[in-house]
Q: What sequence folds into this?
């Protein structure tokens, strides 16, 4: 396990389950999000047609991913955008740091980006003397709290109004504690507007990258993304290689699916399309735009036909909002950048099963995540596949290495021997009869209150009740008048 990964899901879950305030916060938020999403898709036929289109767009893009990435680079370069490739998060951090240092940037304003969270970019820049401030309100709140996001779309969903009020009063100079949401928002806006005006560079994520035109598409509700990418003289966008789509015609169905699935909105407030730096005669926009394309293990995921479906994700978080496990323990329990159902299939593949091999087991396999996924990712099937890979890894034919990083990390030789014995007994009738008779004979000699048997016998004890006839049941339910037997 990497030294910075910390306790696993199973070790952290009890604390979350024993935190009633956390559970209330999530329950209230998830109920609202589920209701809003359902209101956006009242017609099942329309929903089925739209998600079929969204899934087809992503599937087609993935089928041509290497070609589309080269085409994207070619178009962006022709438009004046500088493209950088990073195999690991360490390489991506070094690229971003180098660009900022070359430009002499000391302050950075950031739009929302899960890939930058994956890179731990803020901490990396801080170690090199560059201050990065989150401009998304939710991200700004958790940055003040020194926490990580607990949700892909709403990073501070685990906090209620009172907790945020206390935090602002503590962290923002001159602000008194208030329960007024508008005052809290205005206080954050005052701080962030000054940051926008004085930042040396802006950093953002990317929702979709269009190979046909070399266009970076960003969607948001607060306007911070637009300010981060237009006010500073330098704009750096970071994204995973799976965000590329083929044409501009592919964007409308995805824009119809993403906000409806994420927040229950028909469309986000802002849809930003960036294809170049500021051109001659234009009055605003950055003078330089850079795009960092991060692999970060995605190429390995892409090599497997089944697991490659993971890369369809458009980061709407609908699977989280409907997950009975996530709703009860929250995002921090996963101790990963991507929590919830999508995280349970993505994190083990990116970080390895040694670090996150228990996460695929943190699921009821109820199929709610698959039913609401706007691009039809078969999450339960992939969870089962990863459970299998954790104990019996599939190997890549060419290299004989596990398909999934750290495949087989969860294998227990004791458990394997037990199941091997079970198979031996259950495939040989004579041996089965001998073993079951021996167990029955031996079990009769074990005291019912023995330490190893007490819980077993208690759970399996038959309830005691007085037998009743059909006549008794009929009379109890009012079908018969009281008559003598």
A:
């Amino acid at each position: 396990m990497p030294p910075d990964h910390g306790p696993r899901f199973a070790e952290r879950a009890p604390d979350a389950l024993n935190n009633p305030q956390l559970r209330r916060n999530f329950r209230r938020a998830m109920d609202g999000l589920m209701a809003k999403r359902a209101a956006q898709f009242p017609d099942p036929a329309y929903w089925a047609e739209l998600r079929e289109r969204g899934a087809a767009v992503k599937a087609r893009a993935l089928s041509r991913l290497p070609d589309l990435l080269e085409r994207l680079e070619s178009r962006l370069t022709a438009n004046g955008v500088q493209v950088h490739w990073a195999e690991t998060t360490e390489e991506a951090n070094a690229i971003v740091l180098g660009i900022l240092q070359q430009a002499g940037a000391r302050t950075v304003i950031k739009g929302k980006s899960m890939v930058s969270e994956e890179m731990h970019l803020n901490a990396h820049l801080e170690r090199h003397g560059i201050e990065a401030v989150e401009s998304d309100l939710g991200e700004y709140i958790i940055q003040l709290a020194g926490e990580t996001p607990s949700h892909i779309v709403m990073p501070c969903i685990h906090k209620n109004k009172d907790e945020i009020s206390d935090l602002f009063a503590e962290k923002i100079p001159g602000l008194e504690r208030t329960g007024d949401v508008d005052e809290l928002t205005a206080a954050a806006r005052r701080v962030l507007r000054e940051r926008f005006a004085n930042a040396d560079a802006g950093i953002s994520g990317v929702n979709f990258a269009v190979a046909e035109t070399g266009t970076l598409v960003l969607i948001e509700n607060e306007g911070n993304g637009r300010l981060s990418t237009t006010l500073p003289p330098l704009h750096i966008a970071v994204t995973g290689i799976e965000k590329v789509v083929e044409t501009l015609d592919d964007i409308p169905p995805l824009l119809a699916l993403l906000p409806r699935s994420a927040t229950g909105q028909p469309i986000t407030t802002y849809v930003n399309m960036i294809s170049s730096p500021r051109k001659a005669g234009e009055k605003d926009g950055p003078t330089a735009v850079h795009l960092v394309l991060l692999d970060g293990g995605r190429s390995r995921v892409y090599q497997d036909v089944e697991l490659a479906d993971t890369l369809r994700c458009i980061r709407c978080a609908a699977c989280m909002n409907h997950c009975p496990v996530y709703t009860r323990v929250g995002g921090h329990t996963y101790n990963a950048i991507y929590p919830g159902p999508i995280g349970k299939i993505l994190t083990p593949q990116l970080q390895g099963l040694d670090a996150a091999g228990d996460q695929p087991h943190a699921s009821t396999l109820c199929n709610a995540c698959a039913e609401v996924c706007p691009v039809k990712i078969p999450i339960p099937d992939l969870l089962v596949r990863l459970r299998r890979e954790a104990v019996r890894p599939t190997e890549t034919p060419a290299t004989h290495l596990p398909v999934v990083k750290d495949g087989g990390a969860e294998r227990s030789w004791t458990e394997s021997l037990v199941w091997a014995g079970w198979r031996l007994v259950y495939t040989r009738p004579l041996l089965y009869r001998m073993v079951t008779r021996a167990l029955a004979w031996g079990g009769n000699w074990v005291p019912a209150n023995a330490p190893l048997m007490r819980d077993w016998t208690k759970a399996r004890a038959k309830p005691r009740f007085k037998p009743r006839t059909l006549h008794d049941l009929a009379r109890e339910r009012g079908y018969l008048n009281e008559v003598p037997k």
Observations:
- The longest helix spans residues 20-40.
